[in-house]
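in:
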């Protein structure tokens, strides 16, 4: 006969779970064997009652027997709207057991980012970045896993975990290779949808599924029946147990407990009673059994179901309007009836309750048995009790979400406060739910627009299309006046920008500026208009835009941020148009306060956004003031990392740090920064402007390094091809793609791409030969086929470079001119290029000029100098070219 249970098995629900237990045992042993072992995620999946919880309990027993630290948490069907609920259950106890300074030291820079989400630190004043908080929670596990090794994390009912926890779980799963921890989760198939399903599926896709948890076989059910009731249980009785329960382990255990309570004999003659007993353990039968315990016990169970978690006798007594003694008596009755139980190991878990439901199926049945109107009323009372307990509006909000709208302005105020608390800890979806519910109340007419505005701000980073609708509705209503209306219009334009509706963003601020009578507000709106126009990469430029901007900026002294913004915009416009670099730097300097970004214009300030400081730093970068550009790029990176902004902002910061390295000639460092930028951009979403910044700069850097095939692979993998984004990308992607096509032998396509870059630059008036170097690239490509046109292009490029006036621009134009010449004319031009580029901060271009001069002059000394520079830059292709030329000259190493 087949063995149906493992020898020495503990809980009854572990029957026929040998394979799963063996897999768990191996995973625990692997974790314990090596402190540096990679982490593992195991998934137990099965329908309700098939023994998932028992399997997690067995995991705890195995792990603790081997000296592991084990932390556990459980999702709750009525608690899914509580952000970070499950991850708090897991990590909070360990952190609050430390002294505050110890926890701060342990989490380091992540304390202020992840601490508020875990409930161990007060939130900051700004809206927290959800991705940054998620990364902070992953870092917390990574650090705690080193402190508590070997560490095992158990998550039961993961399908009911809150969305923020599931996002963290997916991120942790991605980093398990560097986190020595065992994670075991139990979940039902289905029962989760939307983003939560996506996050949970992403986590489990990285992990290893245990064998599917199926119902018990008839033989196993018979064995379990005899182990519980005695070996004398008759075969017909055992078969009926299996037929009644379908082999569901939970229902089998509960039915056998009822058999024991009723003193039913396990014989064939009594088997007919099993169905009635089984009905009393579930659904309507459970409710009837609950009612038999009395009105007070029913009210107690209802109140416990409303609370969902943190069930204490005192809180239930207040919610059920019972005195303390009666409540304690009800708790004992419900424990005796196997409806409630005392949770294991609650000591040291803040917020943990004294009681919990024996099984989620019971909790669901009790909750659903509460009459609808009474359930709603009890949620309202629970919200007040939670608020009165000092737990805050966010904790009370899950109850307020269940209350019927009733024109209650106090509820509106509580939900708005809850939204602010949710945003401060990095839970914008929870904030959105609170504000959407506040609008249903509804707010008073004079505050309705402000609630819509707050909702728009809450969804700006996660759902720009939704934000657009909210803000447009708010602006069409009374209630937004003065500075707040200007803020709303600016946020609307930002949302339009993020939704790739840049032309509409420009029209929005332009129209509001035209009708706003306040000069300071109008100036800010005009600055926003010029900002969006300045980053627009469309084919046509608004008539006389640059002249109007120059005229307006000429009146600005930099006395406030609106004037400073206009100075930055004018400097950026002058830089892209190839006007005097000295004037560009002078305009940018005037926009600073004591050499630094003014308060309100910083990288993490939301009034203006990141576009202005990016424009400022880019203007310095292309005007050969790389010292100032790099200082700003590094400041951005530090600001976003310390603030925990690890989404699109951090991706752009890494991209621009990479741009700084690329301009400086540190190609290895540039590639490293740009690959990190692309990694983060992948997480944010493909197709966004920040994605293009990472890819374009990475391909440009790989080409400079001479890694042509790798550049082509990146381009193919990430779709580096038209159509291009509506926002400007630095450097311009068309010349970069044209150079890639030429380097891979697709000459005709490369020439066509460069000619398209010529037309686009002419339409926008962007004549800076460093930002949009189409002319020099096209001249080189046409040198043989059409030398006359190539010469004209080189001459025009030199004229534009001299107009801009930087050593880099002039040196690069001279390099191009030298490449089109032969003999002494080529040598003289190459020597001039070296002179200019030696004074430039761009070392790669200097190295290229040295190598080209050495080849033209047949100078081994110059080639060796160029080779040394190329090697220091990481320009492998250029270094190989120099070595080849030296070998031809007989000077090979």
């Amino acid at each position: 006969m087949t063995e149906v249970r493992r020898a020495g098995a503990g809980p009854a629900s572990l029957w026929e779970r040998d394979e799963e237990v063996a897999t768990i045992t191996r995973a625990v042993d692997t974790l314990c064997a090596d402190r540096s072992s990679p982490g593992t995620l195991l998934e137990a999946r099965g329908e309700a009652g098939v023994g998932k919880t028992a399997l997690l309990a067995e995991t705890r027993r195995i792990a603790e027997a081997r000296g592991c630290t084990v932390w556990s948490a459980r999702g709750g069907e009525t608690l899914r709207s509580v952000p970070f609920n499950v991850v708090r259950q897991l990590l909070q106890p360990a952190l609050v057991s430390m002294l505050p300074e110890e926890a701060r030291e342990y989490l380091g820079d992540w304390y202020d980012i992840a601490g508020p989400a875990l409930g161990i630190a007060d939130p900051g004043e700004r809206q927290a970045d959800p991705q940054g908080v998620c990364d902070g929670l992953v870092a917390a596990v990574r650090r705690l896993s080193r402190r508590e090794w070997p560490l095992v994390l158990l998550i039961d009912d993961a399908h009911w975990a809150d969305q923020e926890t599931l996002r963290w779980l997916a991120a942790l799963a991605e980093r398990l290779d560097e986190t020595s921890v065992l994670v075991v989760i139990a979940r039902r198939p289905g029962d989760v949808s939307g983003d939560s399903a996506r996050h949970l599926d992403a986590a489990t896709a990285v992990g290893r599924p245990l064998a599917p948890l199926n119902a018990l076989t008839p033989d196993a059910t018979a064995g379990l029946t005899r182990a519980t009731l005695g070996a004398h249980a008759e075969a017909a009785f055992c078969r009926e147990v299996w037929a009644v329960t379908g082999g569901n382990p939970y229902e089998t255990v509960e039915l056998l407990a009822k058999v024991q309570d009723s003193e039913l004999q396990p014989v064939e003659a009594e088997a007919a009673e099993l169905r009635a007993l089984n009905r009393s353990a579930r659904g309507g039968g459970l409710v009837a059994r609950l009612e038999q315990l009395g009105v007070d016990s029913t009210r107690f169970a209802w109140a416990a179901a409303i609370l969902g978690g943190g069930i204490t006798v005192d809180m239930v007594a207040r919610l059920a309007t019972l005195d303390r003694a009666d409540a304690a008596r009800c708790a004992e009755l419900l424990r005796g009836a196997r409806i409630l139980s005392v949770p294991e190991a609650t000591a040291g878990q803040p917020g943990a309750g004294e009681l919990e439901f024996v099984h989620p199926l019971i909790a669901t049945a009790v909750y659903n048995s509460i009459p609808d109107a009474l359930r709603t009323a009890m949620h309202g009372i629970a919200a007040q009790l939670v608020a009165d307990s000092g737990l805050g509006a966010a904790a009370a909000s899950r109850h307020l979400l269940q209350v019927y709208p009733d024109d209650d302005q106090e509820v509106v105020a509580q939900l708005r406060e809850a939204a602010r608390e949710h945003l401060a800890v990095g839970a914008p979806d929870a904030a959105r739910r609170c504000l959407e519910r506040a609008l249903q109340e509804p707010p008073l007419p004079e505050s309705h627009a402000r609630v819509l505005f707050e909702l728009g701000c809450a969804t700006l980073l996660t759902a720009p299309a939704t934000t657009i609708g909210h803000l447009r509705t708010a602006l069409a209503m009374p209630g937004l006046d003065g500075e707040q209306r200007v803020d709303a219009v600016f946020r609307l334009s930002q949302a339009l920008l993020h939704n790739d509706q840049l032309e509409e963003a420009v029209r929005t601020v332009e129209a509001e500026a035209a009708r706003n009578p306040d000069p300071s507000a109008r100036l800010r709106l005009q600055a926003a208009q010029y900002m969006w126009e300045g980053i627009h990469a469309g084919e046509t430029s608004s008539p006389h835009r640059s002249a109007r901007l120059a005229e307006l900026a000429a009146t600005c002294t930099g006395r406030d941020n609106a004037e400073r913004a206009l100075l930055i915009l004018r400097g950026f416009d002058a830089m892209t148009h190839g006007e005097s670099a000295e004037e560009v730097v002078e305009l940018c300097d005037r926009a600073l306060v004591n050499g630094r970004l003014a308060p309100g214009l910083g990288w993490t300030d939301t009034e203006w956004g990141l576009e202005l400081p990016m424009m400022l730093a880019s203007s310095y970068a292309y005007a050969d003031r790389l010292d100032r550009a790099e200082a700003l790029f590094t400041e951005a990176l530090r600001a976003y990392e310390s603030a925990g902004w690890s989404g699109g902002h951090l991706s752009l910061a890494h991209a621009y740090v990479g741009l700084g390295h690329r301009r400086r000639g540190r190609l290895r460092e540039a590639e490293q920064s740009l690959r990190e930028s692309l990694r983060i951009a992948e997480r944010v979403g493909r197709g966004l402007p920040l994605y293009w910044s990472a890819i374009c700069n990475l391909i440009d850097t790989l080409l400079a390094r001479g890694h042509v095939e790798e550049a082509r692979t990146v381009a193919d993998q990430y779709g580096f091809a038209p159509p291009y984004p509506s926002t400007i990308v630095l450097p311009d992607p068309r010349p970069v793609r044209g150079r890639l096509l030429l380097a891979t032998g697709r000459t005709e396509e490369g020439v066509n791409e460069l000619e398209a870059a010529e037309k686009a630059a002419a339409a926008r008036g962007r004549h800076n030969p460093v930002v949009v170097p189409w002319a020099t690239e096209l001249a080189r490509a046409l040198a043989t086929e059409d030398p006359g046109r190539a010469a004209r292009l080189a001459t025009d490029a030199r004229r534009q470079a001299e107009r801009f006036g930087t050593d880099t621009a002039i040196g690069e134009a001279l390099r191009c001119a030298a490449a089109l010449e032969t003999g002494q004319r080529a040598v003289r031009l190459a020597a001039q290029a070296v002179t200019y580029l030696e004074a430039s901060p761009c070392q790669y271009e200097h190295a290229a000029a040295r190598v080209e001069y050495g080849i033209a002059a047949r100078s081994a000394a110059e080639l060796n100098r160029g080779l040394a520079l190329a090697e220091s830059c990481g320009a492998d292709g250029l270094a190989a070219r120099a070595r080849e030329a030296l070998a031809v000259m007989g000077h090979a190493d």
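note: The longest strand covers residues 181-187.
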